[in-house]
């Protein structure tokens, strides 16, 4: 279950990065994206 949550959080963060490229840069979006990348990495690669 942790791997699935990590995988989902990672791809949500990738989608948010794409959102930042096409729309105006927002600081809160960048922070949320960084947190989701961190959660995705920790849940998927760390046991």
Number of domains: 1
Number of strands: 0
Shape: elongated
Strand proportion, as a percent range, falls in under 5%
Task: Tell me the span between the first and last alpha carbons.
Answer: 11 Å
Number of helices: 2
Runs with pLDDT <50, length 5+? none
Helix amount: over 70%
Task: Kindly provide the radius of gyration, computed on alpha-carbon positions and rounded to a whole number of angstroms.
Answer: 11 Å
Class computed from helices, strands and strand pairing: mainly alpha
* String of helices and strands: HH
The biggest sheet, with number of strands, parallel, antiparallel or mixed sense and barrel status, is: none
Overall average residue pLDDT:
79
Overall description:
The chain has 47 residues and is mostly helical. The chain has helices spanning 2-22, 27-45. The chain has one domain (2-45). Helix 1 (2-22) packs antiparallel against helix 2. It is elongated. It starts with a helix and ends with a helix. The model has no long low-confidence stretch (mean pLDDT 79).
């Amino acid at each position: 279950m942790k791997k699935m949550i990590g995988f989902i959080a990672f791809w949500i963060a990738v989608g948010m990065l794409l959102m930042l490229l096409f729309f105006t840069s927002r600081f809160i979006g960048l922070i949320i994206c960084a947190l989701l990348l961190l959660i995705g990495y920790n849940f998927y690669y760390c046991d």
